[in-house]
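Record type: monomer structure entry
Structure origin: computed from sequence
Chain ID: A
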Amino acid sequence: MPLTYVFDVETVFLSYELEGRWEEVHHMRVSVCDFYDVEAGTHHIFTAAPDEHPGIRELFEFVSRLRNEGATLVSFAGEGFDWKVLQGEFAMSGFIENRAQFDHGKIRMVDLQAQLIERLGWRISLENLAVCNLGEGKSMRAVEAPKLWRQGRWPEVVEYCKRDVELTYRLWEHGRRQGYLALSADGKIRVPVKW
């Protein structure tokens, strides 16, 4: 049976630092990537830093294996952001010739944000969903992670990425169990979900 992972990518650059902004997501470069193995309850951390974690080559090999095995990847904005960053990183690192060459393969993508946008017609943040459904939020704002990374504060970015993955996993589980996610702190405004 194919495995299920919850994943998130942190980047070296912010969109406003790139000439094409959001059209250039694939040039943002991976700083940290976390794949949480739902069945085993373990994190697979990859970084671009010269630290104890596996690097970008190992990340490419890991994701390639998931593409071939048909794993399920759960994310928050994985379709429109994280996967594109991975494609760009693998192309710029010389592991693939072009981004289009590295499609999902057999992977089944479950992007919570994309599904919520489809249902609601507007975007809601991971922070807001976590506060409304779990009573807790993210460890920092997303724009802080690239700055910390470039300051050499890699462990903080790793912990931030892990926290986002944990929140995404818990929201996914909550939606699966309850059949909805709350959009208000009092839980009165809800959106039905099916994933």
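Annotation 1: Strands lie at 4-11, 30-37, 42-47, 72-75, 108-111, 180-182, 190-192.
Annotation 2: The chain has a mean pLDDT of 93.
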